[in-house]
Amino acid sequence: MYFDSYDCASFVIRGLNQLYSYGAEILPNVHLNYTRINIYSYEPELLGTYDQIVQNQTLHQDFLNFYRNFDSKKPSTGEWIKSLINIYETFFLSRRFYLYYNNVYWYMKLKQPTPLKISFNEIPITSLLKTK
Q1: What is the Cα–Cα distance from 41 to 112, expressed in whole angstroms?
Q2: What is the pLDDT of residues 92-103, one digit of tens each?
Q3: Which of 16, 61, 79, 80 is the most buried (most CB within 10 A)?
Q4: Both 95 and 77 in a single domain?
Q5: pLDDT at 37 exceeding the cut of 60
Q6: Residue 90: pLDDT over 90
Q7: How many helices (H) and strands (E) does the chain have?
Q8: Does residue 82 sit in the same domain as residue 28?
Q9: Are residues 106 and 84 part of one domain?
Q10: Domain that holds residue 9
């Protein structure tokens, strides 16, 4: 493993714990679970900070195009479908990924045949919270 595993649910858990500290409660009929995605790559290549990336026009444009596919603010279904196709091409055809970790960006050439593993954890987030 090149990087520590990052669990996006930890952000949600920290936020919910803070809300709990102010007296908030989660309704009993709300069930919060999370999904985890593991990305498998060869040794990552350090690209540097964003300021360093913009100095290389080709890399900068590729970088912007890559992250644009993950933008959740798509105005139409057609744009969503186009982004999903582009994400598929990125992961399974060109097998590349740009990762932001420890305040710098990394290029990751993804492994074959399976660059991704998605696991659906049925662990309720509420069981991980510090309740009163």
Answers
A1: 9
A2: 888 888 988 888
A3: 16
A4: yes
A5: yes
A6: no
A7: 4, 5
A8: no
A9: yes
A10: 1-39+116-132
The 8-class DSSP code of residue 129 comes to S
Same-domain pairing of 47 and 105:
yes
* 103, burial (CB in 10 Å: exposed 0-12, middle 13-18, buried 19+): exposed
Q: Is the pLDDT of residue 82 over 80?
A: yes
Which residue is associated with the tokens 């790559």?
A: 41
Do 38 and 115 meet the contact criterion of CB atoms below 8 Å apart?
A: no
Residue the block writes with tokens 């912007």? 64
- Whole-angstrom CA distances from 111 to 4, 40, 43, 65 are 18, 6, 10, 21
Judgement on whether residues 48 and 35 belong to the same structural domain of the protein: no
Same domain flag for 48 and 108: yes
- One-letter identity of residue 75: P
Closest by CA position to 34, among listed 118, 116, 125: 125
Structure tokens that stand for 23 in this block: 């007296």
Partnered with residue 46 across adjacent β-strands are 106
Q: 23 and 56: one domain?
A: no
Handedness of CA 49, 54, 55, 59 (dihedral sign): positive
Among residues 32, 37, 51, the alpha carbon closest in space to that of 8 is found at 37
